[in-house]
Amino acid sequence: xxxxxxxxxxxxxxxxxxxxxxxxxxxxxxxxxxxxxxxxxxxxxxxxxxxxxxxxxxxxxxxxxxxxxxxxxxxxxxxxxxxxxxxxxxxxxxxxxxxxxxxxxxxxxxxxxxxxxxxxxxxxxxxxxxxxxxxxxxxxxxxxxxxxxxxxxxxxxxxxxxxxxxxxxxxxxxxxxxxxxxxxxxxxxxxxxxxxxxxxxxxxxxxxxxxxxxxxxxxxxxxxxxxxxxxxxxxxxxxxxxxxxxxxxxxxxxxxxxxxxxxxxxxxxxxxxxxxxxxxxxxxxxxxxxxxxxxxxxxxxxxxxxxxxxxxxxxxxxxxxxxxxxxxxxxxxxxxxxxxxxxxxxxxxxxxxxxxxxxxxxxxxxxxxxxxxxxxxxxxxxxxxxxxxxxxxxxxxxxxxxxxxxxxxxxxxxxxxxxxxxxxxxxxxxxxxxxxxxxxxxxxxxxxxxxxxxxxxxxxxxxxxxxxxxxxxxxxxxxxxxxxxxxxxxxxxxxxxxxxxxxxxxxxxxxxxxxxxxxxxxxxxxxxx
Amino acid sequence: xxxxxxxxxxxxxxxxxxxxxxxxxxxxxxxxxxxxxxxxxxxxxxxxxxxxxxxxxxxxxxxxxxxxxxxxxxxxxxxxxxxxxxxxxxxxxxxxxxxxxxxxxxxxxxxxxxxxxxxxxxxxxxxxxxxxxxxxxxxxxxxxxxxxxxxxxxxxxxxxxxxxxxxxxxxxxxxxxxxxxxxxxxxxxxxxxxxxxxxxxxxxxxxxxxxxxxxxxxxxxxxxxxxxxxxxxxxxxxxxxxxxxxxxxxxxxxxxxxxxxxxxxxxxxxxxxxxxxxxxxxxxxxxxxxxxxxxxxxxxxxxxxxxxxxxxx
Lengths: 529, 313
Known about the structure:
heterodimer; A: 15 helices; globular
């Protein structure tokens, strides 16, 4: 080969090579495309198999629910036309609305619903509790089926219509029959938007098209209840991990909506007349200090009490956000929008005194055992709070070490029940949404069954007993009393220490209409002018 | 020549085997449990254990490595732990953005660096020479993420000439493809063009002091012809070497640039996979990049023979 030929060849190759990549489908330029910057990476497409937030958000677009809770967590029919109770409240009869179809145009049948409830019941905590009450299912006709109960279970509608993960989404029977420990491979639901599998690039881009066969309810939207109207032709998610780039894309009009703007960039966006920054999720984010109850020093309830006395929620929240309007201290084990919210028993958390905490720690006989804090540094809020935990503990006289790590490392280390100086841990800061702590059934962190409880493994039979009472309480008043008693007991045992809540914001361009308050990232009813 | 190419490619096989083993060992030693991340916060230990078993993560490491190697030899890089998608498919989806970015960066770097280096050498101590020194200092010292933000702020947010982020495939048209790639490619080119400029200048200065150049000048050959026909072709071998080495650097820098400009390429795939401990993707990407590095080096070696007829293998 001559040099000239080589040079000509390379020039030609330079021109042609970009064409050799996979042909990606053209970006649709439909007038009504809602472009969303999504914070998380949509990796799995099975909302029962994983509780990852992006998969939950995907689930709400693609699938529908039999029932759905409103902004006061009261369940309403969604796919269901309604329900009745028979046989002394031991049979729950549910009738589907007319005209419900899956995205492959097959009708939604009771068999799909039964199989979906069973799959959900095998994975979700509230689902597992529900299945303990279910004796069997009976199909009456093409639209009606019965859920036979072993004994009355007043929480069944709340379970089927819950908004936190995992939701009881209805899938075609063939999908719902897939082993709950394995992912479904199809993306067929009966929700307002069809998933466009051919355009999906995991970690980069996902797209949906309006499902023309979807029949929304007539009632106005109220949280996840009411009419889920697909108001745009197409939805596109872009996963932009860099907050500055995400903000610039929103400001430049390349994107329409940002589901989780970084709080330090909020003032810049608020200054832009074309951008709306609002607290869409009314439940907010709740921060918690999870303690390891199996290892010293937090295996001693007196040490936990001493630590709670030192905690000043405002210090923690201010470390994360400078805007005081976003800071919401919460002296309760339930979220402020929960029907069970109260400050009963929370006196220990209102002490806010390092001196009193020091004295209580001395009285507890603390022997200088090392406290290892697992600090997740990839999340700025969790990182800031972990540092405040370290400072607070140091000031009250604990022997502390803050170990910085990423989430995946923390997720593995927190499974260790070994001593803190041998690969174990003492505490970490975590965050849940208000929907996750709305009642004792969904509140994972309020379980105190020892080995069966969440990481930290608190063991308090009285708490478990009170939770059992709440589950079976026949009236709302009794449920409230039991939930309050559970909280009072929790403040004695301290399964974890509440650190308060922050208002969760979204940012979007002013030409969007119909953005409604919702505890999940719901994109129905949102239109674009 | 063909024998040399085959020998080089065969030599790459054990190298990549070692790379595969090292990557697997590093991943095995790195803390983090994909089953835990995957199961979510509400999963019970029993559910996490079941997921671990279903993914084969509870098997001994030698068995996992052996199985992966066996599949890999048969062209199967496995499936993502999280999405269940084939790793080959996922890498395939990300190749075009990364390849486009690297290609345009290489073109810009050579188009800027080589003429700049030649001009600086031709006017040693002059304005252009000082300009090259300033440019290379800036190129070396400015981190890609700062340069990227600066360019995006100026050309995308303020002047609105170019988009802030994203990638448009070439099948959608040359103009949108270019518009989306210019800023990231320029960002990525800064260091690379600086290196090429410096090496070109140094190599040209050495060649320009040779006797045959003086002879050419004495014969009345035009300065332009001396520079580009006589000097540059003899100065090109070290430049070609640095272009080859630089491509490996570019691949590393592409991770940051793709993140800043939200380009769905191999770099972002790798970072996401590392954060989630998605082992099959990490192994697949590292293997691919090692192969690319080996191939680039073989290609550079072959280019030597075309640039300098004295070099034979």
